[in-house]
């Protein structure tokens, strides 16, 4: 694996652990695709640092468990915004 890829993988992993970020927000922050973040975290990180991979997996599983809540809040905000415009 190329050095710059390893560096990116480790940087992504540290960012996710420190901030509790989602794959989508991490991809936006580092200007890479969600697919790249996912591949880096699930496959490449496991080869580089299995301990760090386990920590990241825990954060991502927590994000996955909470995503229905974030989706509900986003929908609520959307309709609150629409109703204020219509009034």
Automatic annotation (TrEMBL):
Single Gene Ontology MF annotation: DNA-binding transcription factor activity
InterPro entries hit by this protein: Spore_III_D (IPR014208), Tscrpt_reg_HTH_DeoR_CS (IPR018356)
Key word Transport present: no
Keyword annotations from UniProtKB, A to Z: DNA-binding, Transcription, Transcription regulation
UniProt key word Ribosomal protein: no
Name of this chain's protein: Sporulation transcriptional regulator SpoIIID
Protein source organism: Candidatus Allocopromorpha excrementigallinarum
Lineage: Bacteria, Bacillati, Bacillota, Clostridia, Eubacteriales
Gene behind this protein: spoIIID
